[in-house]
Design a protein that fits this description.
The chain is built from ten helices and no strands. The chain is mainly α and 235 residues long. Helix 2 (19-33) crosses helix 8, helix 5 crosses helix 8 and helix 7 packs antiparallel against helix 8 (175-201). The radius of gyration is 21 Å and the shape is globular.
Length: 235
Amino acid sequence: MLSMLSFVCILGYPSDFSETSKLHAMTRGVLFSSADPAKTLEEFNIDPSYELLADASAYDYLPFVRSGDSSLYHGFMDQYTIPDIGTYYLRHPDSLISMIDVSIKQGMDMRRSNCGNYEKQAGFPKKAKSLFWSLWSSFKELSAPKTVGFLILLTVAVIILFYKGYSLRRVEDRRNTVFLDMLIMVLAFLLSQSIIVIVNSGDAEMAQRLFLVGLSIDIMTYCVFGELLHKLRIV
């Protein structure tokens, strides 16, 4: 109940997505995941010549376009809204899955590459990181699978490991019930957070908004491997 109430609060909270986010929702989301950007633009009644904006970002070192450019509003940004983009993803689930795949990779690589863990007088190279504090982050960055397929495997493993004995009756042992309910809720927050960011800003702002995606995958991974070790009587 607390989790659901917090989700409702998030929905009612004023959005901090900007006009730049709206631009990226199209260029770094809809067009980025489309196999045919020109045809996709026609679905929004936008001139197909705007396909040149596919994967363009206002955050590029030398941006092809800027979000404040008035020429973008007439004929392009005034032709779609965020609900329109959400509807597009409902009609094209393959594009949504493709973007969720990108969000999982971004969510698991949350450690900033331009920051280190040491002060200058420690004598380490610039941006050096301590493995003591970032061993798990280093493993995820270098070795862990970061695809929607891995999330599907985790979900299947959760169901197989915790579905047996699932019961809502008070008199029965509800250990598996509690774990399965919790992990399904974690999965729901992962997907909702990912989809909200995708619909509102494409992949341009994922690094700053997808902490919950990485955390949710960590929780699911921990519970799955913890339960496997328990069933194998290793611990």
